[in-house]
Specification:
The chain is mainly alpha-helical. The chain is elongated. The protein is 74% helix and 0% strand.
Length: 78
């Protein structure tokens, strides 16, 4: 486990703490909330990067390649 020292606006702090209190928040919920939010944001940014990187490719070709790789992976497990 890693500890972070974060500085966030007071308004954000109050909004999150109010939300957690309304939903029955317990000790540790703020850390779990931040962890989930960060993971989602990293995933969102990663997806955007991949989409931008692949924007110049034919969509059908990409989907065909994905299908081929999935089929190959399934065949390897059999």
């Amino acid at each position: 486990m890693t500890r972070w020292n974060l500085s966030i606006p007071e308004e954000t702090d109050q909004a999150v703490r109010t939300f957690l209190a309304r939903t029955g928040g317990k000790k540790g919920d703020l850390s779990r909330f931040v962890d989930e939010a960060v993971r989602r944001r990293v995933l969102d940014l990663t997806v955007r990067q991949v989409k931008n990187r692949n924007a110049g490719f034919d969509q059908r070709e990409i989907l065909d390649l994905i299908d081929e790789e999935v089929d190959a992976a399934r065949a390897d497990r059999s």
